[in-house]
Write a structure and sequence with these properties.
The chain has helices spanning about 5-20, 25-35, 50-65, 80-90, 95-100, 110-120, 130-140, 145-150, 155-165, 170-180, 235-260; strands at about 190, 200, 205-215, 220-230. With about 270 residues, it is mostly helical. The protein has three domains: about 5-65, no CATH class; about 80-180; about 190-250, no CATH class. A two-stranded antiparallel sheet has the order 1-2. The chain is globular, with a radius of gyration of 23 Å. The two termini are about 35 Å apart.
Length: about 270
Amino acid sequence: MYQEFTGIEYIKIAIANAYGYDKLTWDKRLEWFDFTVTHGIDYFLKNAAEPLLMQKALNAYRDAIAGTPTGYIMGLDATASGIQILSALIGCEKGAAHTNLIDTGKREDAYKNVTAAMNKLVTIDVSRRVMKNSVMTVMYGSKAEPKKAFGEDTPELDAFYATIQEEFPGACEAMNDIQSCWQGDALVHSWVMPDGHTVHVPVTEMVDKKIEVDELDHATFTHRAKVNTSQEYGVSLAANATHACDSYLVREMYRRADSQGFEILTIHK
């Protein structure tokens, strides 16, 4: 469902997010704020997930109510953006529903959903935190985190992969399709985005070289450098393609905002 909010409402949502209610619907976050502000919202600061961010947003809210320009920047995050983008690329409705691209009538939590699904298959109690760390890295091509969490060649590891295949079928397929494009003799992987931007990703690996210093009685040390060299196999393509789509979305947002006459704010880190 499409919703629009005022500047004050966005600050209210930011306060609810910082408290730890970023998984609620927009309306529930606003309701929570309106309830707490009438019951002394400063009391809730001590239990906030992000107390400093909550205090910052509260300061902005009070300034805004007083008519004082705040310069406050309210941030929003995507829902499991790796799964979200891969699901969108391949047109997977199940993955899109898990990541709020399709309205299911509630605010979906992809990692909570997949954790609940896996816990039906195993006797151990898998936490959302462990599942999130494993799912997020797997969708970027890594296999280390699931092995760390569930062991190697274990029923739990098999259950993990079966679960993500069942819950995010399109994202898994898209990731594997992208990974299969790896060229073992290439020094660079490159492709063009829909807006004409060329993605240029050199293939690199860390190489150690032993250095001997004659002037220091032939003392030696090891120098590690990043070298552009081909690799028979790599796992970075899916992550780079997903990040490329992410940056493409940002560029499109800038263009659309600019075309509508909105002021573009650039933040330099």
